[in-house]
Amino acid sequence: MRVISMWYELMERTRHILVNQEIQERWWLDKTHFEKIREEYNKKGSFLELAVKAKERAA
Fold first, then answer.
1. How many CA atoms lie within 13 A of 51 on its CB side?
2. What is the value of pTM for the model shown?
3. What 8-state DSSP symbol labels residue 19?
4. Residue 46: which domain range?
């Protein structure tokens, strides 16, 4: 009985480790995605600023 409970604990721990790794990978992908968006935003400026400039040019 003790061996079964130890095996169960081990399986639970490895499952938690895998879940934590998956969460870290998702977090890393989200972080890099938002860093790219932030870089583009900093280069181009906000969409509203571009829209205002376009209206000024048209007027």
1. 3
2. 0.37
3. H
4. 2-58
